[in-house]
Amino acid sequence: MYVAVKGGERAIDNAHAWLAEERRGDTAVADLSVAQIREQLSLAVNRVMAEGSLYDADLAALAIKQSRGDLIEAIFLIRAYRTTLPRFGGSLPVDTEDMACDRRISATFKDAPGGQVLGPTFDYTHRLLDFKLAADGEIGEVPQAPARDTATPHIMSFLDREDLIQPEPAGEATPPDLTRTPLELPADRALRLQALTRGDEGFILGMAYSTQRGYARNHAFVAELRIGTVPVEMEIPELGFSIDIGEINLTECETVNQFQGSKTNPPQFTRGYGLVFGMSERKAISMALVDRALRWKELGEDNVGAPAQDEEFVLYHADNIQATGFLEHIKLPHYVDFQSELELIRKLRREATQMQEAAE
Length: 360
Prior knowledge:
Helix content: 40-55%
Structural class: alpha+beta
Largest sheet: 4 strands, antiparallel
Strand content: 5-15%
Distance between the termini: 50 Å
Number of strands: 4
């Protein structure tokens, strides 16, 4: 037993050394710095921050480098590191109406108050490889971002004035923190949104796509999609007032959905909501669609059996770290389990053969 353990340790140490060598790659090629990843692979960094539940671009970039670009492994590293950090307080809820928008579009109102800002987007590119990027150094001049206005009103507020959108009840209590408390069902909307925010982008996208294809009977319009920075404030008891402690970059999406009304509510629009760290508009839109699908019970709608309406299915399978752990554990030794199954199959085959011979 002792020899087996020591042999296993040597094998693991060798595997770690080989992994480090593979991660570095050809040493004739310059090493990729954390700053380069942070600045030039920012969308990957944003995803790791969002699904890792930790807003720190440098740490997310380091995790991407360490994981050789495996974003789920990088998210795992960030979550593991976050559990070691002390928590010394909580910030006030951010006000996204004060967002300094880099991008703000609406698919429902052409002349949106405050204007539409296309911002940095792939929407209008031709999806052709740009071989200029393969050349060393910068190519051409990088345009400077325009000056940004603050206090851009939400487009939903204009529907609110006419009572055309279902009002949102004000939260009375601080919602549970999913990073510190395990998920329990049934979950209220605040907890569901937390789970969707840190859920796997591909899974949430698939669930959102299913709602668009008819599973959940839920057609949506993007009322507003905005990306930008918002200030973060924290109350200091010794001072008696709040102060800015920094700013974070967020993506927010609000969708408008049809609602036929009920016995107590007239026909009106309802909304779906998504909010994600960084520039993550695909994730934010997907969140909003799935959020709306999960609200069928509180809105008195029928459950048509769509996957996106199943709270347990969506929330328990959205977390890519839990999914990865359960999936990858099957590559670990299962010698005893398999041997018992093997013996069972052999026994059944012997019995089947004996019964066949007896029948002949």
